[in-house]
Amino acid sequence: MSLEEKKQQIIDDFSIYDEWLDKYEYLIELGKNLDAFPEEKKTEERLIKGCQSRVWLDSEERDGRLYFTADSDAIITKGIISLLISVYSGCTKEEIAADDFGFVAEIGLKDNLSPTRANGLVSMIERIKELAGQGRQ
Amino acid sequence: MVEEIRKQFPALSAQVYGKPLVYLDNAASSQRPQAVIDAWTQSVLAGNANIHRAVHYLAGVATEAYEGARDSVQAFLNAPSREEIVFTSGATAAVNLVASSFGEAFIGEGDEVLVSVAEHHSNIVPWQLVCERKNATLKVLDIHENGTLAVEDVEKLLSQRTKIVAISHISNVLGLVNPVREIVAVCHKHGIPVLVDGAQGIVHEQVDVQALDCDFYVFSGHKLYAATGTGVLYGKRRWLDAMPPYMGGGEMIKSVSFAKTTYAPLPEKFEAGTQNFNGVPTLVPAIRFVQASRADADVQKEQAAITEYIYTKLTEDERITLYGTALECKIPLFSFAVKGAHHEDLALIMDKMGIALRSGQMCAEPLMDRLGVTGLLRASFAPYNTLAEAEYFIKCLNRAIDMLV
User: Fold this and answer.
1) Helix (H) or strand (E) holding B37
2) CB count in 10 Å sphere of residue B371
3) Could you tell me which CATH class the domain B2-31+296-404 is placed in?
4) Is A33 on the interface with B (CB under 8 A)?
5) Best CA proximity match to B233, nearest among B83, B367, B12, B103
6) pLDDT digits (tens, 9 = 90+) for B171-205
7) What does residue A26 show for φ and ψ, rounded to 5 degrees?
């Protein structure tokens, strides 16, 4: 699936739910199904600053593409990072750097989080961009 | 009647996400009754002028409203004199004032300050700053398993070098009324003054500073239904007189020259610059509201019923750990952890159900470390909250836990 197709899939999945509680249920499911993240990888360097809960993000480059793994101690946050990495895992650095992450606004995620949590989402996106070598340092 | 009290608070009739707002974050900031909103409006519309100095009519109206609030606060606290009531921007500013000015005059190298592990950052960091500046040591009083202060250790922690003890009346996390009178008595036996952080205490307890005999008592207006940006420092005259000014500027001086500036008498000595003359008068109707709700038997009954109901529900549920369990001194403020469910997730989900809660460290990181948690979920009730809201909160909490665990 291309990056655009993956984004469209998420937008479609989200649009099924009218109620935000249902959207949270969906994020919780995503969070619960995220692959296990090894305890020894939960280091200070992989911790994303700016989130109320703790979020760790790691990336690995194979054949010119980035693959992300992540974890959080809060399940909704874990669902959000899971959603982000499912979209961007397997992309090239150039694809990620060129992307505007606009689909996050399209599903209304940012608007529906309180400002402190929206900041957390912004921090996650910035870290993904940073790992792709284009983020703010 | 609680319903009549609710009607005085326009913000409580709001809908959030299409559901009635259930506001249970009162320990962070309360809502404002119409009388407070009216006092603010009145001040802006018909009394908006800088206080004390000018001779014109509006300045007189503003000064009268501002100084009238000082009389109200003095009576509310049963302070011996109005000069011992200093207005600040809040409890944090008041603690900083004392830490800085008292510290300047009385704390030196090798001296000690005692606080408890259950303090809000506002009653820790100002003391750390002065200790750092003076090369003094901050000592810490522990709590028991049920959240009560280890009062029996106070005397052991005092020494010849202890200059001041700073303790909260009620912890913003544990919701237990501390035996401040007892602590003051022990400290005074050794000639050591005590500052009481009353940010939560003033809201839930009838405070008589002469009966408590504390040397300083501080609180914020915005948790007490008054305008935000208002706060009070009560200090015994002997200390306030002996402390140097905190900030320099207009209002706090007697005369200024480059050779020698002399300071105004109390309380102006500690009120430098333009004061919050729109906000301070709102303390009058806020105090009136507090007194009325305390005298209302129905309201008191409902508050007690809420405390008992929530306490029972949270302690009988094996998935939940409540912190601050000493029921005999419990106020309707509950911080707890849920096994397998993160406090942030619970707060997010319950927010969408219309419930305003606080999650996280609640400005008390040392206490979180002491309890061995990364954060908690907190529900704090005010006299305008109903038992029906408490029941809805428990119902939603159970639903949220089911979604997560």
Assistant:
1) helix B34-46
2) 21
3) alpha beta
4) no
5) B83
6) 999 999 999 999 999 999 999 999 999 999 999 99
7) -65, -45
Backbone angles phi, psi at B111, to 5 degrees: -75, 170
Over range B158-171, report the average pLDDT: 98
| Closest to A115 measured CA to CA, from A106, A107, A123 | A123
| Bridge partners, residue B218, by sequence | B197, B233
pTM listed for this prediction: 0.94
* Structure token digits, residue A63: 């054949």
In this predicted structure, the answer to whether residue A51 has a pLDDT above a threshold of 80 is no
Q: What is the CATH number of domain A3-131?
A: 3.90.1010.10
Contacts of A81 in chain B (CB under 8 A): none
Q: What is the pLDDT of residue A136?
A: 39
The answer to whether B337 and B321 are in contact (CB under 8 A) is yes
- The span from the CA of A81 to the CA of A51, in Å, is 12
**What are the domain boundaries of chain B?**
2-31+296-404, 37-289
Judged against a pLDDT cut of 50, whether residue B289 lies above it is answered with yes
Q: Which residue has the higher pLDDT, A135 or B388?
A: B388
Contact B50, B401 (CB under 8 A): no
Q: Is the ipTM value over 0.90, yes or no? A: no
- Assigned token pair, B303: 């508050």
Q: Which helix (H) or strand (E) holds B19?
A: strand B19-20
CATH 3.40.640.10 holds for B37-289: yes
B354 in Cβ contact with B20 (< 8 Å) = yes
Question: pLDDT of B356-370, one tens digit each?
Answer: 999 999 999 999 999
The pLDDT of residue A134:
53
Question: Looking at residue B9, what is its pLDDT?
Answer: 98
Residue reference for tokens 């939960």: A42
pLDDT-above-70 percentage for chain B: 100
Q: Cβ–Cβ of B344/A52 closer than 8 Å?
A: yes
Reported as a single tens digit per residue, the pLDDT across A20-49 is 889 899 999 999 999 999 999 999 999 987
Nearest to B2 by CA among B384, B388, B398, B400: B384
As a whole number of angstroms, the distance between CA B237 and CA B284 comes to 23
- Inter-chain touch B342–A75, beta carbons under 8 Å: yes
* Residue A91 known to be catalytic: no
Would strands B333-338 and B376-380 be described as parallel, antiparallel, or unpaired? Answer: antiparallel
Say if CB B355 and CB B398 are below 8 A apart. no
The residues pairing with A71 across neighbouring beta strands, listed in sequence order, are: A56
Catalytic residue among A10, A30, A48, A51: A51
Contact B165, B171 (CB under 8 A): no
Nearest chain A CA: its distance from B248 CA (Å): 36
Identify all chain B residues contacting A54, using CB atoms and an 8 Å cutoff: 374
User: Which residues does chain B have within 8 Å of residue A74's beta carbon, measured at their own beta carbons?
Assistant: 342, 344-345
State the alpha helices, DSSP H only, in B228-364. 237-242, 283-295, 297-316, 343-352
